[in-house]
Amino acid sequence: MQLVIVESPAKAKTIEKYLGPDYRVLASYGHIRDLPAKDGSVNPDDGFAMEWENYADKAKQLKAIADEAKKADRLILATDPDREGEAISWHVQEVLAKRKALPKDVQRVTFNAITKPAVTQAMANPRELDTDLIDAYRARRALDYLVGFTLSPVLWRKLPGAKSAGRVQSVALRLIVDREREIEAFRSVEYWSVTAAMEQDGTPFTTRLVQWNGQKLDRLSIGNEDDALKAKADVEAGRFSVQSVDTRPATRNPPPPFTTSTLQQEAARKLGFSADHTMRIAQQLYEDGAITYMRTDGVQMDASAISAARAAIANRYDGGYVPDKPRQYQSKAKNAQEAHEAIRPTDFAKDRVGSGDHARLYDLVWKRAMASQMASARMERTTVELADGTGRNVLRATGQVVLFPGYLALYEEGQDDSQDEDAKRLPRLREGDAPAKKDVLAEQHFTQPPPRFSEASLVKRMEELGIGRPSTYASIIKTLKDRTYVRVEKNRFFAEESGRLVTAFLERFFERYVGYDYTAELEEELDDVSGGRAQWQDVLAAFWRDFKPRTSEVMEQKPSEVTAALDQFLAPFLFPEKADGSDPRLCPACGAGQLALRGGRFGAFIACSNYPECKFTRRFAQGGEAAGEDTGPEQLGHDPETGLPVERKSGRFGPYIQLGEGKDAKRASIPKDIGELDLEMALKLLHLPRTIGQHPETGKDIAASIGRYGPYLVHDGKYARLSSTAEVFETGMNAAVVKLAEAAAGGGRPARGAARAPLKVLGAHPRTEAELRLMEGRYGPYVTDGTTNATLPKTVAPDQLTLEEAAQLIDARAAAAPAKPKKKAPAKKAAAKKPAAKKATAKKAAAKE
Q1: In the chain, is it the N or the C terminus that has fewer CB atoms within a 10 Å radius of its CB?
Q2: What is the spatial distance between Cα 619 and Cα 627, in angstroms, rounded to a whole number?
Q3: Is 15 in the same domain as 124?
Q4: Mean pLDDT of successive 10-residue segments in the chain (849 residues)?
């Protein structure tokens, strides 16, 4: 028996079907072990020795792999064809060796597509594990561990409220923060444009004033309304005719097939997908055998795939769309073993796979790969200049005419923020033509700051700078979101205060390690390891030699010294100059003290130098809705019973009310659904829970209060939810009893064992006429006709499922189901014979099967 190890169960099931009965295919479910999250997992003093720990939730799977490995004659490691895949195979081999379950014959195979030809060809050409790739994995993992476990404690102690820092994560965050600074420093400039709408032979086009009174104009030449109106009047008064027509042929070549990075960029532009979502959908398409492996820097396609693409193009279009020679693209990746084949369909004859997001992403991959082998687009780029009778005022129109669309008939690459003015269509114009002037406009504009990063433009910029690697971009961006260092609005990244504070700390105290050039150089050194050009421990030693002393120096500084340095570093942001020239640090509460950044138990805040006489504070980088707003204590009044002050404050977990001072003070959070908070409402919140009365059946109290999950009722240890804070104070006895009874009955949920309602009734099966229903099952959605159940593939979105797709799933499942053995007809019982008189009772014969 031959044991094959892959990552995912979906992949295992497909490959086992391809290989036959002599093979047993098991999934590792991704990585099986990692460095423990504790000090000492990497020991720089012992050649960066690493202590690995098996994942607790993989114990069952590891046992299954070890049990099968003991019985196997050969172990085939068939994990993904990249650095992480090589590492998983190495981890599996190491664990099996420790358990003395490693077969003598161990081989490594890789394939870029989960298709029968690709898998069988890979099995026929095994190799050994690539030690260079494994060393590169160990170097990156150790480096990320050392940065995280050395730098994060410095952050926690010197910058309360900070969550974490990472080698590449922090540099990506700096990109977003730097763009925010550019936007804040930008000063808009007013300018005007003068355009004329014209028409020739029924075709409208737009011209722009490029010369006025003999002076050539650039974009900012007309800077005020008076000049703009004068220029407009001159254009309106003039009779313009075509002075020159400059037509030049142009060719546009198709872009190469997708790499990991370009797929993430284009999916973000055209489909609005996050990088993380793109990679998740691509993974499922790969596991279903629809596309090739999606983590690659390569742009080349296999020769057979190129032939298949050219055949599909010829079948779809005429011969003119197929270039004379196949197109060859060159990869920029330094390491051939990491530059696998580009992302492409496994079957170019399939122009549609799955539904929903899977279908949309597959369509993008299919079109891009097809277009990469199509003919170039041919066009004419035309520049037309029109002058008035004086020759001193000139209008210009630019545009293009597509002579042959080529690959543009199928696919056009998206753009981030720029628009090509040359893409406008122009009518045919000749010298001396005098097009009709329809309208003249003078429009005011203002120069715009650089746009905030979208996911596409951030990935593009990181790749340009050489920061990180495309396979890591999705997880980096997800971490920045999860840490709330950034937020996303209208598909653009905004730096949160917490992100700015962490970036400021790192720039001030660890400037080298968040430098773009340094990070890119370190990535190149790690690439040299995977290419066999550098030794991994040497790379780590060079990094650690400078990094460790720097962290020790910062750790020795007092928190107040760190805060003072950040106060100066962040001053332009925290205390921007005021329009009236007054002191931006002057306290708005006392009018005498100076504001400065301080560090507290729950994070950074701005405080007045006259504390404790002036208690003005303003939260900074602590998150929550009140971040950045003035949060000095607001006195609402005094409690009539105790005479103690009632104040509204803001803390780590948001706004709250406090009654009294010190340890004995009583506090209550302020719910979000409360409008304007006054003393009466504050006292109500402080005196919760509210006893409604005694339950008429049990005689025990019913109380209303607000907890971690919102407002609720409680009676005898049983709970019922309330819909709003108002209900906490308004719910009476009758309503409370009813709500508690409804909650006890299960809130209207179906009883155990009751038939579930379908998610959707799809209609009658087009061939059997049985009703097809979409159901939610224990293991996910499925379709049923009452007899056959078919699970929905990962590539089919439930809300996009069509009747025909459901029917095909049912038909395929019914065809694959083994025939049920026919039940044997029960044997007829022989008529019982009466025993002979005076004869001993006979023994019963054994029944025959």
Answers
A1: C
A2: 6
A3: yes
A4: 89 88 90 88 93 90 93 93 91 94 93 89 92 93 90 82 81 95 93 95 92 94 95 95 92 94 93 91 90 89 92 91 92 58 92 91 96 93 92 92 90 64 72 94 94 93 88 88 89 92 93 91 90 93 94 90 92 89 90 89 84 83 52 73 82 76 82 82 91 92 87 90 89 90 66 56 80 80 88 76 82 67 48 44 38
CA distance 698 to 717: 12
Q: How far apart are CA 659 and CA 642, in angstroms?
A: 9
DSSP 643-657: --EEEEEEETTEEEE
Between CA 88 and CA 28 the distance in angstroms is: 8
Q: Is 419 exposed, middle or buried (0-12, 13-18, 19+ CB in 10 A)?
A: exposed
Residue 636: which of 588, 592, 668, 603 has the closest Cα? 668
Same domain, 95 and 213: no
Q: Does 815 fall in a domain?
A: no
What distances in angstroms separate CA 849 from CA 96, 130, 778, one per listed residue? 47, 59, 39
Assigned domain for 623 exists: no
Q: Is 431 exposed, middle or buried (0-12, 13-18, 19+ CB in 10 A)?
A: exposed
- Check whether residue 235 and residue 99 sit in a common domain: no
Instruction: State the residue range of the domain holding 612.
Output: 560-618
Q: Check: CB of residue 68 under 8 Å from CB of residue 3.
A: yes
Residues classed as catalytic: 293
- Both tokens of residue 66? 């070890």
Closest by Cα among 197, 136, 150, 159 to 334 = 136
For residue 511, the domain's CATH number is 1.10.460.10
Q: What is the CATH number of the domain that holds 95?
A: 3.40.50.140
Question: Does 755 reside within a domain?
Answer: no
Contact call for residues 34 and 55 (beta carbons, < 8 A): yes
Q: In this structure, are residues 271 and 364 in contact, taking their beta carbons and an 8 Å threshold? A: yes
Identify the CATH number of the domain in which residue 371 sits: 1.10.290.10
Nearest CA among 659, 560, 666 for reference residue 604:
560
- Same-domain check for residues 272 and 357: yes
Report the alpha-carbon angle 449-453-454, nearest 5.
Answer: 130
Q: Give per-residue burial for 662-672: e unless 16+ CB within 10 Å, then b.
A: eeeeeebebbe
Q: Is residue 753 in a domain? A: no
**401 with 480, same domain?**
no
CATH number of the CATH domain containing 428: 2.70.20.10
Together in a domain, 317 and 341:
yes
Among 705, 734, 730, 732, which Cα is nearest to 720's? 705
**167 SS3 class:** coil
272 and 367: one domain? yes
Give the whole-angstrom CA distance, residue 214 versus residue 376.
Answer: 41
> Closest Cα to residue 713, out of 700, 670, 676, 678?
700
Radius of gyration of the chain (CA): 36
Counting the structural domains of the chain, the total is 8
Length of the chain in terms of residues written: 849
